Amino acid sequence: MWYIIDISAEKEGTPLEDLKVITASNIINLRTKAGMTQAELGELLSYSDKSISKWERAEAIPDAFVLKSMSEIFGVSVDYILSAHDKWQPEPEKAEAGYSSNVITMISIVGIFTLALLAFIVTWILESPKWIIFIWMIPVLLVTHLVLNSVFKKGKNNFYIVAALVASVIAVVYLTFISQNWWPLFILIVPAEVIVFLCFRVKKTHK
């Protein structure tokens, strides 16, 4: 079947210069989506990469035979290549694969718990189990969570982590020395939390 395409004239009222730009944009779009370089496309069409570059710069329009070949390579119609579509934009680069921050956080938490459990088992074997180990594990977990949250999530929700850390430290100290009636320590929680709140409200001012 022979295709007769008059690309020297206007296509459906489209000026020739606009048609060059439309065709160039479509060729770039199709070639990029196919993952081809200009040289690779040129090899398939038996043209040099300079010719491909010329078409993509909208300096010329491929002839009918080339357009037909392109349509077969990209699986579209000739009319598609010559028609305007949404403005072409290069596809965003895919982010490099990385490790899940949530998984790393969970590994750290479980790791700390495992170490605390190991320490407790050792004290249990020595016939002097120290349950307080699990109490002190809480602020250690919060410090670890604070560091990882700052690294992976740019400090989002750090205020809540720091607030919990301050309260946990006071609670742990009290529980450690509970036999000495240190309950007034809890009075410190209020001003300490106010300080944390104000610290997170501090912003740089411009002179």
Helical segment count: 9
The succession of helices and strands, N to C, reads HHHHHHHHH
Q: Outline the low-pLDDT stretches.
A: 1-11, 88-97
* Strand portion: under 5%
Using only C-alpha atoms, the radius of gyration works out to 34 Å
Percent range for helical residues? 55-70%
Annotation, overall tally of beta strands: 0
Outline, from the CA principal axes? elongated
The average pLDDT is: 80
The end-to-end span amounts to 75 Å
Overall structural class, as computed from helix and strand content, comes to mainly alpha
Characterize the main sheet: none
How would you summarize this macromolecular structure in one to three sentences?
The chain is mostly helical and 207 residues long. The protein has helices spanning 16-33, 38-45, 49-56, 64-74, 78-82, 101-125, 132-152, 158-176, 189-201.
Commentary on this structure:
The chain has 207 residues and is mainly alpha-helical. Helix content is 62%, strand content 0%. It contains 9 helices and no strands. The chain has helices spanning 16-33, 38-45, 49-56, 64-74, 78-82, 101-125, 132-152, 158-176, 189-201. Helix 2 (38-45) packs across helix 3 (49-56). The longest helix is centred in the middle third of the chain and has 25 residues, at 101-125. The radius of gyration is 34 Å and the shape is elongated. The termini are far apart. The model is unreliable at 1-11 and 88-97 (pLDDT under 50).
